[in-house]
Amino acid sequence: MKKLKVRRVIHAKRRRGAIPIAVGLGIALGLFAAKPASVHGETAASKLPSLLLGAAWYPEQWPESRWDKDLQLMEAAHLDVVRVGEFAWSSEEPSEGHYDLDWLERAIRMAEKHHIAVVLGTPTDAPPAWLTTKYPETLRVDEDGRRAQHGLRRQFNYADPLYRKFCAQIVTQLAQRFGHDPDVIGWQIGNEYTDESFDADTRRQFDKWLAAHFHTLDALNADWTTAYWSQTYDRWDAIPLPDEANENPGLLLAYKHFVTDTWRSFQRVQIDVIRKYADPRQFITTNYGGLGWSDHFDHYIVAQDLSLASWDDYVGEGHLKVARNGAMHDLVRGFKRANFWVMETQPGSVNWAPVNNTLDRGETRAMAWQAVGHGADAVLYWQWRSALNGQEQYHGSLLGPGGKPLPIYSEVSQVGSEFERAGAALAGTSPKAQVAILHSYNSRWAIDFQRFNRNYHQLSVLLDYYRPLRQQRLTVDIVNADAPLDSYKLVLAPDLNVISSQLAAHLLAYVEQGGDLLLGPRSGMKNEYDALNVQRQPGPLVAPLGGRVEEYYALETAVPVSGAMGVGTAALWAERLWVRAPDDTVLLRYGKSNGWLDGHAAMITRRVGKGRISYLGAVLDPALMDRVIAWATSDAKIKPEFAPLPDGVEVCRRVSASHTIFVLINHGAVPAEIQLPVAMKNVLDGGKNVTRVQLGAQGVSVLESAR
Ligand code: GAL
């Protein structure tokens, strides 16, 4: 995304201080690239700051006479943006072909009056009853052949051409009406794409997709080794749409690619309509759900058609899991390798967890700042006010059903006023990492189809690599395995199970040109068809590594490990490595365990070209893993980005060409005092120069220093 430098003066009364700021986010999104249509005079969008706070607002659920009050309360809480309309189809098209968007226009104008910009949701996650009743084929069919019924959401069939036609029609109406609206800054397509359909037509589409991708049945039969269990296919329509986890792994992986392409084309229909009628300054996103880690489809591929990545960040039961949540932000930032939005987050509690406890006082604010620290340019709460009825009556909100602020409202207002104060400093900044963790949906799927150890959780393995990096005060990018890697000094690939020869060439080029690559367990076991690589792990990288995996073992008990990095244990998974090249170094070995592992290599490394490739074949205990990562960062000559910090304090760094921002968050319960490496401006405290900061529990400090 190109970042042009545009300066704009914020002079609304609520923007205290009347400071000129570079509108980083707006610029990133191209908000000001096109002429700012200004039929309405000074619009909300034309005054957008670089850091936005907002909420999901459902005007269709409330009498119009109440809207002004709602928006007044939002403005008072320093909200800049509302997302509206993503479930409003029955209000926008009350009967087939009869559209009513006047109320939406009035809602947007009312938001404008309160200097609040709008993200418009397309309502295609929740079709109206007239549609699904008259055209039941638009309803999805589940794995057991049952058609979904009305009254829930996500009941539509994503592959159904007729459903897509209705989507295109309603989106056409919306885009024609609001595509040039100066207060509409962007679009959200649908909502948290989730459920597939297993109806007969989708099955036929899958056959066609397979034919287009494999070209011949002979190729497909070979790539999937279908001679196994007599699976050999002699017709495309004999291939099942897999509704069964125990299908051939090649078929399962191909199905995931089909699902990805089907979501992408579902989304494309709407994007094409919006792009046809709307200003290019309006961004297009969709809110990824599934607590950040969902793998229903390949998020990188679906994000290719979006101008901005966004996700819904919920904690659910318990409290913020700092590393996990930080990693999810970093993962989402990787979808477009750019700053992103948190399109939804919980004000206090959710309603869908086993125990819907509320976040502690201050935790909601800490979460908002964590999002910003990791690259979010907007944080929106779900939702503004509790609907009187409907499935989510118990969910956290900023206002209660009676329209009065709930206790959390004041904490959110504080975040709003801080975002205002920090906006200028954060404009044009984004996280910049020296180290990347590779992530790939192919590998995620391939391992989860056959975990081998049911306790093997890839997210937890990823966090084993991520946590020590964050403890070393480093920014971490989590990127697709085939992303450009030249800018990284160190690349870690914890579970890169699928390594095709193309991907291997990409990784090898990185190493040869001076990169440091550490592969984790299970890497390179499979090729792009989910077939076993005959070289064994790490597949096409066995030759440059000068060694390989001889055998892998799911562990029921921990195994001792020792070597250059000290002593510890492996759990869950251990691979016995075989070293061939004389210039390979064994860094860790297994101690006495099942006999097969005893004395064998657990981690090896080799210099290749100007760089280094290493392979760690075990899931290690946290202390030993810390030392492995310390070895890797020191070998790659990576220095911490900040001075040492007390336990529980997180540091996030965003940089621009001119300056650096550090966001410090004390996630712990104990107050912390932090000595700064150099004097910095305390952004939330009038820009005073400070050399130390005190952070109470859930305390936040935003500091600016020269680049
Ligand atoms: C999200 C969803 C919202 C709302 C929220 C409640 O997954 O997108 O519409 O249901 O959950 O936590």
Protein model, in words:
There is one protein chain. It is globular, with a radius of gyration of 26 Å. It is of the alpha/beta class and 707 residues long. The relative contact order is 0.09. Strands 12, 13, 14, 15, 16, 17, 18, 19, 20, 21 and 22 form an eleven-stranded mixed beta sheet that branches. Bound molecules: beta-D-galactopyranose. Beta-D-galactopyranose binds next to loops.
Q: SSE layout and pairings?
A:
Blueprint lengths: L6 E3 L10 E3 L1 H5 L23 E5 L7 H13 L4 E4 L4 H4 L9 H12 L3 E5 L7 H6 L26 H18 L5 E5 L11 H15 L2 H7 L25 H29 L5 E3 L1 E2 L10 H5 L6 E4 L8 H15 L3 E6 L17 H11 L2 E6 L26 H19 L8 E5 L1 H9 L8 H14 L4 E5 L9 E4 L7 H12 L3 E4 L22 H4 L1 E8 L4 E5 L2 E14 L5 E6 L10 E8 L2 E6 L1 E3 L1 H14 L13 E7 L3 E8 L5 E11 L5 E8 L4 E7 L1
Parallel strand pairs: 3-4, 3-11, 4-5, 5-6, 6-7, 8-9, 9-10, 10-11, 12-13, 12-14, 14-15, 15-21
Antiparallel strand pairs: 1-2, 16-18, 17-18, 17-19, 18-22, 19-20, 20-21, 23-24, 24-27, 25-26, 25-27
Helix pairs in contact: 2-4, 6-9, 9-14, 12-13, 15-18
The structure holds beta-D-galactopyranose.
Beta-D-galactopyranose (GAL) binds next to loops.
